[in-house]
Amino acid sequence: MNTDTVCLAADELGELAVRAFTRAGVGEVDARETVDVLVTGEMLGIPTHGMIRVPEYIRRIGLGGINVAPHIRIDRRAPALAVVDADNALGPVAGARGLAAALEMAQEAGIAYAGIAQSNHFGPLAPYALQACARGMAIVIGSNATTTMPPWGGAEARIGNNPLCIAMPNPDSAHFILDMAMSVAARGKIRRALREGAAIPEGWAVTRDGRPTTDPEEAIEGYLLPMGGHKGSGLSQAVDLLAGLLPGGAFLTGISSWIDNPGAPQRIGHFFIAIDAARLHGPGYDRAVREFLTTITSTPPADPAHPVLYPGQREQQLLAAALRDGVSLPAALLAEIRALSQ
Fold it and tell me: In terms of Cα–Cα distance, which of 242, 270, 37, 274 is closest to 132?
């Protein structure tokens, strides 16, 4: 084992993080909802949105940037429409309430939209998708974010690296879970390269004056590049319309940066669109999704050593391995979480 990493059972790691949050003033239920998302993200192989967020969230709590005792209000605007006012709660807490509302309405109506306003960073999207798929629901999830990219052709950051997730339940094996942001690479990966003193690949970001760079510090001070050029830029804007503008929350430059202003509410928005998959498709849903995914995985691979996988399959393999063998974390990060819990 790498001496710079430590392996813990998922339950042990989770309890450690729950104690860290409750010591910071977060209620037990809210702490567990938050930790479930972050630990699951870590096990899915998304460390930039996993346990590294524990000390970051707690730092913002200490600065007053996150409300540890929110009064979250759910306003049902129609049988299958709801808006959630998160009252500056921890993002995963707001996400848990919004997801629950969307799933409950979709169970009744077959399809539902829940939009969340006045929230904060709410971790990776795949853990929420896993919960929905376990209930037999297809789901579309999105969130807006701090501005880090210019609109295509622009020279100033006006749009966020807004993540989007589309998931479809698979009763036989790993669910289909596409979880992606709109940049070529996530800002968290650039921050990790900066911490590790490593260069980043060219094409991830540009400097403030638009020059390509492999220096993570210049990249952090500059702009991320959208995937697919104008297509990624436009898709980011579409997610912001659904997550920010539609539920009546903040959008674009109205989102506060937790890096520049950690003591201020971020005012982030999220959305969940849940669809009762089997009810919509009919009794042949299980067979159809099995045929779809098998068609993907049976594709002859370009490299025999790397079989073709569908989105989310590898991540769920990592999740199963972590649940069996434990979660490996950088020793310094684990020490920091342990200190926060004591």
Answer: 274
Residue 256: what residue type?
Answer: S
Q: What is the pLDDT of residues 293-338, one digit of tens each?
A: 999 999 999 999 999 999 999 999 999 999 999 999 999 999 999 9
Which pTM does this prediction carry?
0.93
pLDDT digits (tens, 9 = 90+) for 56-94: 999 999 999 999 999 999 999 999 999 999 999 999 999
Q: Residues 157, 233: contact at Cβ < 8 Å?
A: no
What's the rounded Cα separation, in Å, for the pair 295 and 41? Answer: 28
Residues in the chain: 342
Q: Are strands 176-180 and 268-276 parallel, antiparallel or unpaired?
A: unpaired
DSSP 276: E
User: In 3D, which of 234, 266, 271, 230 has the Cα closest to residue 250?
Assistant: 266
| Cross-strand pairs, 272 | 114, 141
Distance from C-alpha of 90 to C-alpha of 30, rounded to nearest angstrom: 8
Q: 255 pLDDT band (50/70/90 cuts)?
A: very high
Which residues, at least 6 apart from 315, have a Cβ–Cβ distance to it below 8 Å?
44, 45, 46, 126, 177, 179
Round to whole Å and give the CA distance between 239 and 95: 16
Determine the angle formed by the axes of helices 331-341 and 53-62, rounding to 10 degrees.
40
Q: Tokens standing for 274?
A: 């849940």
